[in-house]
Amino acid sequence: MTTFDQLAELPLTIDGHELSGQEANISSGFLRMTTTINFSGAGEVGRGEDVTYDNEDHEALQAWGAPLALAGDWTFGSFCEALEALDLFPQPPVREISRNYRIWAFESAALDLALRQAGESLHQRLNLTPAPLRFVCSLRLGEPPAILGPLEQRLALYPGLEFKLDPTPAWDEATLQAVAASDAAKILDFKGLYEGTEVDTPADPDFYERVLAALPGTWIEDPKLTPEIDAVLEDARSRITWDANINSVADIDALPFQPTMVNIKPSRFGPLSELFGAYDTCNERGIAMYGGGQFELGVGRGQIQYLASCYHPEGPNDVAPIGYNEPVVAAGLTPSPLAVAATEVGFQWQ
Fold first, then answer.
1. Which of 14, 60, 274, 325 is the most exposed place for a label (fewest CB within 10 A)?
2. How far is C-alpha 311 from the geometric centre of its chain's CA atoms?
3. What is the DSSP letter of 330?
4. What InterPro entries does the record point to (predicted)?
5. How many domains is the chain built from?
């Protein structure tokens, strides 16, 4: 029996649903909007968060209201099957991946509700044991890189904090040595799979060689595997991990070689059958995992922390509490690792 099969049997009663929006200015310099899906039924409420990036998609959804015919008695599995046959967008989304983000939100809310109605937590249902959750802080040092600013400001407050950093060709030798001296960089995200974005990095083998030589103990995320760069990375394949191209089990199958580790971002997978299928696949093949977030503003952040605490608590999880995403981080944030905060029933993390 697959993991999803254990969830699919849960009875689910939905009386109705409501939508609520939230927004915040975040460190990347844009107004982030998300939408919370609130399912009600049998005196309980289940919640999930749509992390679609384009604000016009949220505005259209919230103006649309809740016209979907989702009320009724289901199993969780039959609900997911019916939901995935619907168009959850009143107008076509700006980008197709947003369909996955919205499915994740609706199915997460339904799973939370089904578990609450059953009086069970997710980890109890799946016979899992959540553990204290290690996290890293995702950070871009700017152009030109300002190592004495964002990284050292955080380390001054939180000396044990670890980082996922985005190296760029602007990293000179002084920057590389400062990052190495901090001993805090755990993942280097080369963003080699992006095209036509502000964060693209060139496929420059000399750049890769300089960074790898200065930081030999880090994970190498999303390299651009041109023949020249592949040759540079030949002896470091065990350190290569993948993120932006991992949206399904089929994507794991399609990698050029079996990875040591991959980034499982739950919202990217969309249907929960696909997400839990990826967990099953990685466990069966001995592929390590870590989690990633999508600038969640509400309940979705806790849900990805909950999953990470169950499936890969020791990984370099890019799921830090949202305060670490502020341009200047304040004192008093919870340090890594996070204590287990799974609720006694449902799919929530307090």
1. 60
2. 13
3. P
4. Enolase-like_C_sf, Enolase-like_N
5. 2
Residues ≥6 apart with Cβ < 8 Å to 43? none
Tokens encoding 38: 């609130």
What's CA 100's distance to the chain center, in Å?
13
Domain of residue 311 covers 126-325
Cβ atoms within 10 Å of 1's Cβ, excluding its own? 7
DSSP 8-state secondary structure symbol assigned to residue 235 = G
339 lies in some domain: no
pLDDT digits (tens, 9 = 90+) for 38-67: 999 999 999 999 999 999 999 999 999 767
DSSP state of 144: T
Q: What residues have CB less than 8 Å from 3, skipping those under 6 apart?
A: 126, 276, 277, 279, 280
pLDDT tens for 200-243 read 677 889 999 999 999 998 999 999 999 999 999 999 999 999 99
Say what the pTM is: 0.95
Measured CA to CA, the distance from residue 144 to residue 170 in angstroms comes to: 6
Q: Are 64 and 73 in contact (CB under 8 A)?
A: no
Using CA atoms in the order 227, 228, 232, 238, what is the torsion angle rounded to 10 degrees? -20
